[in-house]
Amino acid sequence: MSTFGTNFRVTTYGESHCLSVGCIVDGCPPGMALTESDIQPQMTRRRPGQSAITTPRNEKDKVEIQSGTEFGITLGTPIGMRVMNENQRKQDYGNQTMDLYPRPSHADWTYLEKYGVKASSGGGRSSARETIGRVAAGAIAEKYLREAYGIEIVAFTTSIGNEFLFPPTPEHPSCATNPEYLKLIDTISRAKVDEFLPVRCPDEAVSKRMEDLVASYKEKEDSIGGTVTCVIRNCPTGLGEPCFDKLEATLAHAMLSIPATKGFEIGSGFGGTQIPGSIHNDPYIKAPATPAGATPSGHPSVQRPRLTTKTNNSGGIQGGISNGAPIYFTVAFKPPATIGQAQATATYDAGEGVLEAKGRHDPCVVPRAIPIVEAMAALVIIDAVLAQSSRAAARSLLPPLKGVVPIHGKAEAL
Amino acid sequence: MSTFGTNFRVTTYGESHCLSVGCIVDGCPPGMALTESDIQPQMTRRRPGQSAITTPRNEKDKVEIQSGTEFGITLGTPIGMRVMNENQRKQDYGNQTMDLYPRPSHADWTYLEKYGVKASSGGGRSSARETIGRVAAGAIAEKYLREAYGIEIVAFTTSIGNEFLFPPTPEHPSCATNPEYLKLIDTISRAKVDEFLPVRCPDEAVSKRMEDLVASYKEKEDSIGGTVTCVIRNCPTGLGEPCFDKLEATLAHAMLSIPATKGFEIGSGFGGTQIPGSIHNDPYIKAPATPAGATPSGHPSVQRPRLTTKTNNSGGIQGGISNGAPIYFTVAFKPPATIGQAQATATYDAGEGVLEAKGRHDPCVVPRAIPIVEAMAALVIIDAVLAQSSRAAARSLLPPLKGVVPIHGKAEAL
Amino acid sequence: MSTFGTNFRVTTYGESHCLSVGCIVDGCPPGMALTESDIQPQMTRRRPGQSAITTPRNEKDKVEIQSGTEFGITLGTPIGMRVMNENQRKQDYGNQTMDLYPRPSHADWTYLEKYGVKASSGGGRSSARETIGRVAAGAIAEKYLREAYGIEIVAFTTSIGNEFLFPPTPEHPSCATNPEYLKLIDTISRAKVDEFLPVRCPDEAVSKRMEDLVASYKEKEDSIGGTVTCVIRNCPTGLGEPCFDKLEATLAHAMLSIPATKGFEIGSGFGGTQIPGSIHNDPYIKAPATPAGATPSGHPSVQRPRLTTKTNNSGGIQGGISNGAPIYFTVAFKPPATIGQAQATATYDAGEGVLEAKGRHDPCVVPRAIPIVEAMAALVIIDAVLAQSSRAAARSLLPPLKGVVPIHGKAEAL
Amino acid sequence: MSTFGTNFRVTTYGESHCLSVGCIVDGCPPGMALTESDIQPQMTRRRPGQSAITTPRNEKDKVEIQSGTEFGITLGTPIGMRVMNENQRKQDYGNQTMDLYPRPSHADWTYLEKYGVKASSGGGRSSARETIGRVAAGAIAEKYLREAYGIEIVAFTTSIGNEFLFPPTPEHPSCATNPEYLKLIDTISRAKVDEFLPVRCPDEAVSKRMEDLVASYKEKEDSIGGTVTCVIRNCPTGLGEPCFDKLEATLAHAMLSIPATKGFEIGSGFGGTQIPGSIHNDPYIKAPATPAGATPSGHPSVQRPRLTTKTNNSGGIQGGISNGAPIYFTVAFKPPATIGQAQATATYDAGEGVLEAKGRHDPCVVPRAIPIVEAMAALVIIDAVLAQSSRAAARSLLPPLKGVVPIHGKAEAL
């Protein structure tokens, strides 16, 4: 099904060649200022063909809100959104390449096996165009998280091919133990990331090497993959459900649902498997005092926790539940399947042949994936925030427990 | 919420010190032979303290079916299952270590932040004991998948610390391109894996090195992580929903919901980001003919597809949908948080101190995680199988399309 | 949330004064012929101002399919649908009646209490306009049910005020025991119902009396309620889930979700509480042979059951599961809350006053509710059909049970 | 599926002849005092064979909490509950009546059609024993609603056969317009209801007539139906979701999921269709001041609304959302299908025959259904309360709207 989330629920529709793509966002809190101008920037960041000199006012992929707001205020009812497809013409069928061959590592063949009907675009909903609805919904979620909690979500490129922002070393098999990395995690902003267009890797030298690498693959009519790291700062504690819906599990679900992804790691990740527990464990320390009125939302109900951790190998999540430290994770993207080179493969009826794709192809999807990663992160977090605020609100109405559940040796109601 | 799956839905209950742990399995197909003896073996494989000489009849963690079967046949109604806790005594509160300190990288503190109530066991449901219900449910799912489709699910240890079964090399940044690895994926069995107890890594030399490594961490009262790879063979094509519930997304969700996991990768995974598209793409070839009657279920309705892929960097999934090739993925497990070494950390009320845990601790959870990975894989696959069989059954009742949706130039109903 | 169904899932959006209303239909079986012309007729039947002489080509409320089909064939992907709102102008706020008074028995006040934001239309999503998305989705569901199973769904007016098509009598406290009623249930068609516009009660004399009654309320600037009965014929057996999602429970849910409904009864209903069990029980009889090829879908997989019931007080459902007999139920609609008469009531800030609504008001919603009742019935049935076909398909792949579950004394696999 | 609710989610298991019946309650707010003694009273009220002289300590159907509490406090984690079956012996198959005949108006035949497997008890989960899990879960929900909001839920018998507590009259086609009825709704308590055992109709004369009527059916080896009315007092405003999950829709779903139900009506119900809008509309009046500290939970966050309605034909719900007035509804129960009289019917293989059931049969289920109705009402309300508290909590964190959404002519933030 094409639905994500329980409390903040997004349902998307649309494929490459239909009339429009879009989504319905159900469960958006009422009373929030919201217009298309809150949504368009991320739509534009997602568009192909961007560079440092891209004009900021890109009229393509223009989102139209259909419902759920009045006078620029959310009503709490479903928000319909729509973006027209420019190329609405369905492909005519005929003796064309796309009709003969399922493209290798595309979804053409698996869609046909699944549905028994071949869309003219081949893989139908597996098109990158489907992600438009996600980015639009994510922008709404982000706005709420920012206004209510001051949550910041920033993604950036951490590797392309074998060019890494933080290459693994014997000392740091995971960059989670590298203080430089943690400092970056704590401070990186979207504005900073976009200074490094087109690759969006916030380091001048590495960014240049990545750009060159992508160019070399483009020249060879080949493609290459990479990784995106995303950080979520200022999350309240208590997000995530124990057991099946741990916060890292829903983040992994969200990220692996993005086209072309092959992996996900939270905190110390795969490298963390090589670090001894004595180093990997994150000891607790007293949290620094928050200046009065520091809460971005200005609401005293958003309290900062008493403790934080000295290190952050956990990536802000312990036992599936957020601990208030920055949440960070990395997502792997494969090399795009569409390449200009000829490929020996089989036709739908199992005949041997050679497929040659024509036209412009994007040799690396990583930079454009960044707003999509941010959008999916926002959808996960807002869903968890609404679940937890329901639980906290429910508990707050119960009579206080008297001396039954002590901590640190004293009989103290929690 | 503690529920997993839509069509085959598992709800678990229980924490360390309560009366029992268990689950309800809803949506199990009716008419399948099922008794406790189908479930117990995986329960036993999950138990601590196993080795090659473990007696096969372990009376601990004995599962009792409460409902949903009669005369050893599933009725199609919910199957309740229960396993008694041996240590039902709740901890008395007092001036104990567990009351003073949230254990670093455990769930003690995040649970308290989430629920405002401290369970005597600290992290409540984050206990490894919670996985009992998953393994029981997974065993039922597996039986169905085996009987109806001949699906085989096998997990094994691929690394502990820096000891790898297939270390990454410049030639093979992902082992997905290594023919030796693919051969292992195609042939490995549970019986073979269990020949290599206690570490369950199917290579004598590597297994020995891993065992030594674990022993060295045990001696230091420290701990270490590792990775588990799991393969699912004989999956039908068409599993997985496009968009949010891609098959790799639900697998990632399932795996990251297992306690102590830090990462997931499907097919070529993180290493695959370094492989050019021209190599990474999996070309199609004609599938080898299946011998008559080869379908394990003996039902002609389970057909093998016409095409397969020459390589399998996709890990059996393209565009979020299974293509019939073996599905394989790897899961990262962190070093266990409970270590014997003293740790400088803070108390609940932010005082500084040193926490010393006593008792026997497992220095590496990887070998025991194997049946849990297999169980969660089975739960994902059965849910996808039931969704897809509903779709296929629904389509089969429609009047055939006449010449509308052609493939390879001919007007042919699909 | 604005979502209905699990396997065939409809999500709607839109209120009175926004840009458009519409829905996303997810889970429609692939490979079905579908264009706007399949959907428009029910949209048109739902429009106000219809009579026997209404032109068949009503250009208002024109539905546009956004996605999910190509060349008039469903792809199996989400179907987006949109209907423009004509009056998109939001009401300016000011010292107007609607700003001062919550209208009695409307949703103005409860919406404000719920969301803390007042939509210009008062009750926002409680508008009858919201039902457009339901009718569009229902038309798609109906087409599938008709093509695959030959299912027919027909609703008609059974009472307006105290004018009844079958008034309760001491002999028949429920019309379920009246053979005349059962004969109507078995034969009524939509074409027949629409012969009796505007009231849609298929009896000339009663229809005339109802029309006069409505006219008398219109004259008094008052309003009146009534009941709609709906029959679903040719349903397969086995629909409905035991326990919480019994078929009558999901039908009741669907019907009470239609604006202005106050009650639901299945089969003998409330009157059935007065009938002794010895009469109320439906004895089994051998089902009449179905002529070869009689299945409308032409698919032999849709088999008619061996037994049927002699009477049908159960309304086609026993133990929450369909038994193959016609399913019929009745829905109560209250008198419309908008009346021309002056009403003494309170303002939002609890001041006393008199509210006078101006303009044209519909004195009875019953006739227009008919396509909405049919749509919601179709959504319930298709969801149940897809759930049951998944179960049946899953079971069919298991090895046959040998002599374990006998019926009538013989060891016979079922 | 056997799951009810989204935020407070109940999953039940068990049929007549298995080891135990029970449920898992997921989403119970943490920090609430809870032991078996909070649950047992409703379990006992549900048991057969009760009368005014029933001993209060009935040891049958004893519930055991398995998990989710410690030291009598809820942890917020899933609460497993179990009740042993006394008759765990599955029926042997043989040439018995139950093997030959599907019992008329039972679920024997529909279950067989659905699952293809015959449970020894015939209709498997359709057994009244399945309701045990509901009552246990409902008791937990009720406790929360009472402690946090002072909500009271009371059900009572309003008719058996043609004996009515409030028979419909020309003046009052619905008792909703009868002030006597509304007074009863406002004041009735469970203690009062149980004074009128065995029928639980709170009027001495009517109760006596009902008792005699039931006795006469018992003598004839026949059965009879009736209705139960339920009132929910002190509900907060704002409960219920617009569109598909209107509060009356989820109540209807819940009630029609109880075995043997045939109808549901909210507020004025079916009778209300005969009342003109000018009488049926509920005008607003200023709500009476609540005495300081009157909120049972003692929490100032539970505020009483500013307005209430003068009449209550709406049954406390407008536009699908609670308005703070008492919510009341009526549920129809059919005559039990099990009767002692011989019935001419067909065997499973369509042979003609006569079925004679032996043993003790309950001629009327209405009185025992009362705690089940209350339990299901509690499950609906707690789910809606948690959804709404999440929404309200989410909104409360947003910056206040400035002068954008006015009411009554003034620019006022809501």
TrEMBL record, chains A, B, C, D:
The keyword Transmembrane does not apply. Reduced FMN (FMNH(2)). GO terms for cellular component: cytosol. Pathway: Metabolic intermediate biosynthesis; chorismate biosynthesis; chorismate from D-erythrose 4-phosphate and phosphoenolpyruvate: step 7/7. GO terms for biological process: amino acid biosynthetic process; aromatic amino acid family biosynthetic process; chorismate biosynthetic process. Its cofactor is FMNH2. Keywords: Amino-acid biosynthesis, Aromatic amino acid biosynthesis, Lyase. PROSITE patterns: CHORISMATE_SYNTHASE_1, CHORISMATE_SYNTHASE_2, CHORISMATE_SYNTHASE_3. GO terms for molecular function: chorismate synthase activity; FMN binding. It catalyses: 5-O-(1-carboxyvinyl)-3-phosphoshikimate = chorismate + phosphate. Gene3D superfamilies: Chorismate synthase AroC. Its EC number is 4.2.3.5. The keyword Amino-acid biosynthesis applies. It holds the Pfam family Chorismate_synt. It comes from the Eukaryota. HAMAP family: Chorismate_synth (MF_00300). NCBIfam families: aroC, PRK05382.1. Homotetramer. Belongs to the chorismate synthase family. PANTHER family: CHORISMATE SYNTHASE. This is Chorismate synthase. It comes from Periconia macrospinosa.
